[in-house]
Amino acid sequence: MKFTKKYLALFSLLLAGGYYFYPENYPIYVESDHYSVDKKQFFNPTLDKNVEKIAAFKAIWQMIFNAQAFTPPSLLPMNKPDFQAFLSESDNAKFIWFGHSSILARIANQTIFIDPVFAKSVSPIPIMMKRFQAPPATLAELPEVDLIIYSHNHYDHLDENVVRHYALQKTRFIVPLGMSVLLKKWGVSAERIEELDWWQSTQIGNLTLTAVPAKHNTGRGLFDSNKTLWAGYVFKTPQEQIYYSGDSAFGNGLHFKQIVERFGGFDLAFVENGQYNPAWIDNHMLPVQTAQAVTMLNAKRFMPVHWGAYPLSIHAWDEPVKESIPLVEKAGIKTLTPIMGDVFDKNTETSHWWLNVK
After folding, report:
1. Which one, 52, 242, 272, 315, has least CB within 10 Å?
2. Is the Cβ–Cβ distance between 232 and 297 less than 8 Å?
3. How far apart are CA 251 and CA 234, in angstroms?
C-alpha cells in the first residue's frame, strides 16, 4: 500500500502540469520598485534568499507520508457562528475566524470575506495539505457577502470553488494587480473586480481600504510565477484601524516599518503565524519574527492567522502560537485567539484553548 501510494504521489507530481498548469495572458504593468517590465514579473524590493530545494523536497515528502505528525490529535474546538450577533449594529468591527487566514468581517456596515478558503486540500495535488476539519459554517449558511478581499493567489488563500460560488452573486472583489485574470476566468464579471497596487486605496462608504506591501510571491502553476502581485491590507474607519498581513516574510522588516510610518499603529493586527520553515525563510515568518513584526507595527492587539486549519509545513500544528504568543505578551501586547466560529471584536477576551487539545 505504501509502495503504491509513493508511486501515485510521484506520478501525480509529474502529470499535474498537464491539467492544472498552463499559461494565462497577464497584463504588463508600469516599471516600479516591485515590477519588472523586462521579466513581466513582480518582485520583492529587498533581496530574497533562495528556497533550499533539498530541504523543501524533504519537507514535502514528510507532509505526504507523515501527515499525522503535523495535524491535531483530535478535533479542534469550534462553534456554530451566531450570524445575528455578527450582523448587529456596532461601532467596532466584528469578525469570525474560519481557520487559517480566512476571516469573515463586518466593518462599516459591510460584510467582507478575507481570503476565504473552504477546500479540503490546498495543494494542486490533493494528496497532501488536507484540512484538519470542516469549517464552522458552509458557504450556503453564510449571510450575504458584500466584498471579498484576496491577498494573493496561492491555493491556501484563493479557492476556485469559492470564487465560482460568489461569481453567481452580487459580491464585489478587491485584489492585488493581476489577480482579475483568474477571477474573470472563473466567472466574475470585470466590473465587479477592483485591482490595487501597493499603497493604493479604495473607499467603500466609511471604510478606506489600502493595499500595503508584503514580502512574498505568487503562482499556482508552472508558468505564472510572480505574474500577479501579493499584498497586505489596512482597514480604516472613523473608529478603528486594522491591519491584515496576508502572507509575508520578515526580511529586514522594511515593509513593516513603512506601513507603521504611514498609518501610525493599529487597534488590531492579524499577522501570519505558521507554515514557516528555515528552508523558505523569505516566504513566511518564524514565530520570533511574527512577534517582532507585531511589535514594529505598534499593534494594540494581535491575532495570529495562517494556522489552525492546514498543515503546510513540518512543525507541530500548535507550535506557531506556543512560540509567538509568549513573545508578544512579553512585549506588552494583548493577544486575541478566538475559537473558530466565534463572533469577536478587538475587545473580546479569549483563552489559550490549544493547550487543552489532547
Report:
1. 52
2. no
3. 20
Tell me the pLDDT of the chain averaged across its residues.
94
Cα–Cα distance for residue pair 193/183, rounded to 1 Å? 8
pLDDT tens digits, 103-138: 999 999 999 999 999 999 999 988 999 999 999 999
Phi, psi dihedral angles at 89 (to 5 degrees): -65, 140
Phi-psi region of 219 (alpha: psi -120 to 50; beta: other; left: phi over 0): left
User: 88 Cβ partners below 8 Å, 6+ apart?
Assistant: none
- Alpha carbon 138 to chain centroid, angstroms: 19
CA–CA distances in Å: residue 127 to residues 9, 66, 67, 75, 140: 7, 12, 10, 20, 26
Grid coordinates belonging to 234:
489596512
| Distance, CA of 4 to chain centre | 34
Look at strands 110-114 and 193-196 and give their pairing. unpaired
Average pLDDT over residues 66-89: 97
Indicate the Cα dihedral angle 185, 187, 192, 195, nearest 10°.
Answer: -20
Query: For the chain, first and last CA: distance in Å?
Result: 29
Q: Do 255 and 219 form a contact (C-beta atoms < 8 A)?
A: no
For residue 9, pLDDT over 70 is answered with no
What pLDDT was estimated at residue 6? 60
The DSSP bridge partners found for residue 104 are 96, 113
Q: Which residues contact 221 (CB under 8 A, 6 or more apart)?
A: 17, 20, 21, 22, 124
* CA 314 centroid distance within chain: 18
Could you tell me the sign of the dihedral formed by the alpha carbons of 179, 185, 190, 192, in that order? negative
Burial class (CB in 10 A: 0-12, 13-18, 19+), 193: middle
Which CA distances in Å does 93 have to 111, 124, 160, 189? 10, 34, 27, 29
Quick check: 323 and 83 in contact, CB under 8 A?
A: no
pLDDT digits (tens, 9 = 90+) for 42-58: 999 999 999 999 999 99
Check pLDDT > 60 for residue 14: no
- Per-residue H/E/C for 108-175: CCEEEEECCCCCCECCCCCCCCECCCCCCCCHHHCCCCCEEECCCCCCCCCCHHHHHHHHCCCCEEEE
